[in-house]
Amino acid sequence: MGAVENRRRTRIVDRQFQLGLAVRLLLVLVILFAAGLLLAFAPSYYVLATTNDLKSLEPAAAEFLVLHKRLWPAALLSLTGIFFYVIIFSHRVAGPVYRINAILRALIEDRDPPAVKFRDDDHFQPTAALLKELSEKMRASRRAAEPRPGGDPPPGDAK
User: Fold this and answer.
1) Rounded distance between C-alpha atoms, residue 18 and residue 11, angstroms
2) What is the per-residue pLDDT across 33-81, written as a single tens digit (0 to 9) for each?
3) For the chain, how are helix, strand and coil distributed in percent, rounded to 5?
4) Over 50: is that where the pLDDT of 4 sits?
């Protein structure tokens, strides 16, 4: 037999959902961050753009350069951290959805569904409990409906 892949180790369960969520969140955060940067740079830029007096320009230019030096590395670090956090967070959503879909697929195909197991930190724990209860109920009803060996009728069918 070949090596069995351990799917629980990967952080990307549903690539389209997880990366889509990360990109959309980053886009919104970049827009909000850009608005914040605009507010941070606006006073210095206004002085630089509207003043011709060298004594007023020097502190504004120094402040403008200091802001550039400090804010851009912080912005890059923040956005990178947020991207990876979203990947990890979305794993707690995409993993359970993947397992819920596998169980529903098995139920649609009239197969016994796989065991319902979510990680402790996954979202949708109440849904996992409901799916577990539903699968156990369906297994029990299938066992009761199966014909018994030897031709005995199932209980309740005796006349």
Assistant:
1) 9
2) 888 888 888 888 888 888 888 888 888 888 888 888 888 888 888 888 8
3) 70, 0, 30
4) no
Q: Is 94 exposed, middle or buried (0-12, 13-18, 19+ CB in 10 A)?
A: buried
Q: Which two tokens stand for residue 145?
A: 């409906």
Q: Which residue has the higher pLDDT, 7 or 115?
A: 115
CA-CA distance, 41 to 36, in Å (whole number)? 9
Helix (H, G, I), strand (E, B) or coil at 61: helix
Q: pTM value?
A: 0.54
pLDDT score at 154:
58
- Say if residues 122 and 92 touch (Cβ distance below 8 Å): yes
- C-alpha torsion sign, points 13, 17, 20, 23: negative
Of 119, 94, 116, give the one whose Cα is nearest residue 107. Answer: 116
